[in-house]
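Quick one: structure tokens for this chain, please?
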Amino acid sequence: MNEVNLLIAPGRINGMTTRNRIVMSSACTAMCSLEGYVTEQMIDYYAERGRGGAGIINVGYSYVDIRGKTGKHQMSTSEDSAIPYMRELTKAFHAASPVGTNIGAQLNHAGRQTNREITGFVPEAPSPIPGPFPTGRHMEVPEELSIARIHELVKIFAQAAWRCKEAGFDLVEIHAAHGYLLSQFISPYSNLRTDEYGGTLEKRLRIVQEVLEETRGVVGPDFPVGIRINGDDMVDGGYTIDEYRIVAQLIEKTGYVDYISVSAGQHHPDSAAAMVAPMSMPLGFLEYLGAEVRSAVEKTPIFIVGRIKNPISAEGILQRGSADYVVMTRALMADPELPNKTMTGQLDDIRPCITCMQGCTDRTWAGLDLTCLVNPAAGREKTWSRLEPAPKKKRVLVVGGGPAGMETARVAALRGHDVTLWEQSETLGGTALLASIPPHREEFSDLPRWLSTQLPKVGVKVILGKKGDSASVRLFAPDVLVAATGAKPEIPEHVPGWNLPQVITIHEALSGQKEIGDRVLILGHSTAAVETAEWLAERNKQVFLVSGAETQTWEDPMDALAYDKNSFTGRHSLMESVMQKIEFIPFKTVKAIEEGFVTLSPMGERHPCTTHYPINDVTDEQLVVDTVIIHLRQRPVRAWMEGLDNIVSEIYKVGDCLEPRLAIDAMADGGRVGRLI
């Protein structure tokens, strides 16, 4: 068994015992009401994480004042009316969690990183500088805070802390990172003041020290108070670790802080990936910042974040002395039982976070409630977390061994059904394995790998090399049939030359089934098309990415590609060297394909979203290419099911076989159908 002795060791934070050194930070869930009140969904979500047994789980992030609200469904600590709702949360959490699992609340003010659409007010900030943001959402010029308003905000933070203590939270954490209000004061990138709250580092930090002093005075000496700071702003004109070492020292000297949580980055296109890291970032990539801050302070415990997603890598950070606690937020979204499994040595059974961001960051930043691709029960805890035994045992046949099929089989077997899974290839995984081939997407394979190890443990009989067809299903005679046979790309048969040998699908390209020339045209602008372009460019291919349905125009092709990678941090994985090999061609379609070249023509009809973007080029053009890769509309593979509805009384379709969508939708299908059977 792998040793994780330091990770599972108890800890102490100002007299508060922690069960282990695992922390869940305050990620946005978008589960609160529009008034900012805790909902039943949010209670269930955090109670489930409490049951999993982490040392500290911080809720949030909450707004301390309406002008500092960052999202419409963000948690409020700004008014006394929120206390009863928060108390219901802490009560349920403590009832569910083991001794030593503590719940905290993070206190935040957005500063310039909000807008009137959310708050109803002009944003406020240290200086009247709009905050750059990848989507252009936060570009409103804020009002410069007066001295009187600063003093008011200090008391507002403290009152929010008092409300959290009154509501039964075990600790509070002050958010002074990521370019929010307190971070804006600290960094010269956003603070141009010349009064007592600007200029020198000490003056920039004044409001933070005042917030900590006022908060300590309100909550008392024995109530744990932490703070999150950057270790590096990672923007031109911001502070680096050299300054943040001093920041940490000055914070410690106040005597008001019981731990320092170290992160990095601002809401800026060039550093957003440090805040919420995509797959392109190495595991534990911010460890060095934790080590630097830890060496700068005398005794204050240090928390570190940054793609820490498994117990082994977390243990390494602790063994190297880089931090005292590790923050594993997204890993606990994927598997709330990670702490319990770690403490009992069940490391192989931990459901892996794949850092896809489809269910967490991408959803919450779009204003939707949080869920998780690999754990569809996240956000659905009330009805999904506790599997009910099936009232009647059934003979279930699942045809297709991609994630949707495997998840259906796993859940159905856990409910007591007799489950058999057929997969026509010799490997489980389906398109998830292909999705893991492009650069920086390797961790997609972790999901099918985990599912395939779980199936035999729950009694699923897996038969590889077995193709599903009507005759075979009839012979098997299942009570329930689940079709998980995926989808195939639609071939544009109306395009002359579509059947030439040089025309292939993305599946054929990524799987190595077909040879690919040096000059490649990809028709389609899905995430898969973008990632395939990146994969080919890394292999020194010249790639032309043709899209006829763009909804935006871009001066920088990198921005165009990153936008379509379904994440506001997507551009981080697109390296300049790769981009030199990709030419982005919007508003075009393939008119004809011939040996050695294609003819492109402008779209005859534009999408409504693009009507205000003029198309100056109205002529056809010929482009020399060796290979054409098609990735347009997908069509479900269902022909093999013909006539089976007269034989099998209970039939379900899941994943792309139901409707081609994202991987998160496929896994949700599997979880839903496995519970319906």
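The radius of gyration is 27 Å.
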